Amino acid sequence: MGEAIYPVPESWASGALVNAAQYQDRYVRSVNDPEEFWREEARRIDWIRPFTRVKNTSFHEADFGIRWFEDGTLNLCANALDRHLAERGDAIAILWEADDPTEPERRITYRELHEQVCRFANLLKQQGVGRGHRVTIYLPMVPEAAVAMLACARIGAIHSIVFAGFSPDALAGRIKDCDSSIVLTADEGLRGGRKVPLKANVDEALNQCPGVTSVIMLRRTGADVPMLAGRDVDWHEGVASQSADCPAEEMGAEDPLFILYTSGSTGKPKGVMHTTGGYAVWASMTHHYVFDYRPGQIYWCAADIGWVTGHSYVVYGPLMNGATTVMFEGVPNWPDPSRFWQVVDKFGVEIFYGAPTALRALMREGDEWVKKTSRSTLRLLGSVGEPINPEAWEWYHKVVGERRCPIVDTWWQTETGGTMITPLPGATALKPGSATLPFFGVQPMLVDNDGKPIEGAGDGCLVITDSWPGQMRGVWGDSERFFQTYFTTFPGLYFTGDGCRRDADGYYWITGRIDDVINVSGHRMGTAEIESALVAHSRVAEAAVVGMPHDIKGQGIYAFVTCNAEVEPDEALRKELVQWVRHEIGPIATPDIIQFTPALPKTRSGKIMRRILRKIGENDVSNLGDTSTLADPSVVDHLLANRPAT
Ligand code: 6R9
């Protein structure tokens, strides 16, 4: 079957920030002379003290280290707000749309946002927060979440956002790991017409976190929630008495900006740490070029701030570029599946950036929901979070974008800070399902399992050979783990954990995770995390979790569970375990299938043979490969004979 190719539309080729020839030329310069290239690009940032040193990085054990612009100083909040005040103070910074379409929108100008951030930063200071302190943010998609992030950046505090869909246990784990003494939350969140008891979750989490001395709570729904005297502060009451003057701290380029927990192949989520200077350059530059962003355009990234996409492309990237960024509290299919496109029409959105899982869910509802809206303002579409299947890509292109909008399918990770492999709309011919070509300064390589480079077209493990400014700088609280996790599988190379194919045109096709991470609706889940939640249940002896193909979510969660000897597993226990996992981690970790089994397939040395379980999960059981090293091969027959219907 021939691959579809969509050439750059004429209007884009002539009018874009970067055309094909410029992309080629600048890409080559970016990798041949990174010093010169980045010295130039970093001028997009207002530095307080300009850097003299550009790049000081090594992926090798002997001199491992990643430092960019290291002797420069800056403040990221000032770059996102103060620098715009003179020229665009009255332009809208945040356009907020509530969950409930009948609730009025909020339009916040740069000047107003600046004032709110300064007041809130002063409240944080009054609560004892200063440079380097960790602030946990557990807020829904409301403008105050952006205010909180920017206020931390302003005073040099390090924010750690925990997705508001995570459970009290998951929240507590993240609070303790980074040792934060303050939590920012709301009484309740609102999503798809349902209330999420955020403050109650915080209260429950804090039973495990004696170190937290202060909670600032935003009233979102007005629910009657208990406030603990001496600990809990009402957001608006606290802010009311604060001055609107708050100087921005002078931060070193390599001072930490934020921590964001993400799943890896081991049980405990890692606190991915990003620093200030390189991240600022990377987030603003990628947002500028990938979306071809020009001031005044209405831009909407539909990600939650609880994920890295929300950090870089709802808040930091767009605001550094003086954008009008849409923030949406709700979900794509409530009150009905037109919701996204109604918001596009309401605000005149020109650039829309969303996740394949949402597109697949909307596609299933039929084209009418899209077609009854205008979408005439849309000029560019984006995709992020997981591979987009060509069918969903074509639907996005034809039905949503009416063939007029290029689609930028952006591959990147929490660890990379911003987009890495992506089309540029005026430069790159598109192939549905391919993230296409590397962004400036990104040097991807494919290697086989032994680390041998694959030249030309081929399939392999995706690694990056040299550093880029937005790269993570460490795992919070564990100086060894960063190097161990990313640079030892293939020494001297950054290992992404993704498999990838490169075609004859040099285009990259991400094939998905090749480690024990699964991607559920664009959210990373470590299988080990779900396993440890399952075995924490008193009736479970052992559990193994693998991914399975899922029409909407991309991947679903398939759990093999062995119960304690005296337990007779039944439907009631199955339901109980599903609820248990939801409670332990959060609804995103809900198992799709639980298969009870008297035993798991193990090697004689006792290792679970995940390869076999993965194949069963993928329903690819005709060839299970070599099972001769299994301690008891009959276990596999039993698993196959008792597979639940899907
Ligand atoms: C930004 C983000 C990272 C993992 C990554 C990969 C998958 C993200 C993708 C994609 C194919 C894309 N992924 N974007 N796969 N095409 N355009 O999602 O960060 O949550 O850390 O997930 O997501 O597997 O390794 P994060």
Automatic annotation (TrEMBL):
The keyword Kinase does not apply. It catalyses: acetate + ATP + CoA = acetyl-CoA + AMP + diphosphate. The modification N6-acetyllysine is found at K607. It comes from the Bacteria. Residues 529-607 form the AMP-binding enzyme C-terminal domain. Mg(2+) binds at V535, H537, V540. Pfam families: ACAS_N, AMP-binding, AMP-binding_C. Keywords: Acetylation, ATP-binding, Ligase, Magnesium, Metal-binding, Nucleotide-binding. Its EC number is 6.2.1.1. Residues 23-80 form the Acetyl-coenzyme A synthetase N-terminal domain. SUPFAM superfamilies: Acetyl-CoA synthetase-like (SSF56801). CoA binds at R191, G192, G193, R194, T309, N333, S521, R582. Residues 82-475 form the AMP-dependent synthetase/ligase domain. ATP binds at G385, E386, P387, D409, T410, W411, W412, Q413, T414, D498, R513, R524. InterPro entries: Ac_CoA_lig, ACAS_N, AMP-bd_C, AMP-bd_C_sf, AMP-binding_CS, AMP-dep_synth/lig_dom, ANL_N_sf. Acetylated. Deacetylation by the SIR2-homolog deacetylase activates the enzyme. GO terms for biological process: acetyl-CoA biosynthetic process from acetate. Its cofactor is Mg(2+). This is Acetyl-coenzyme A synthetase.
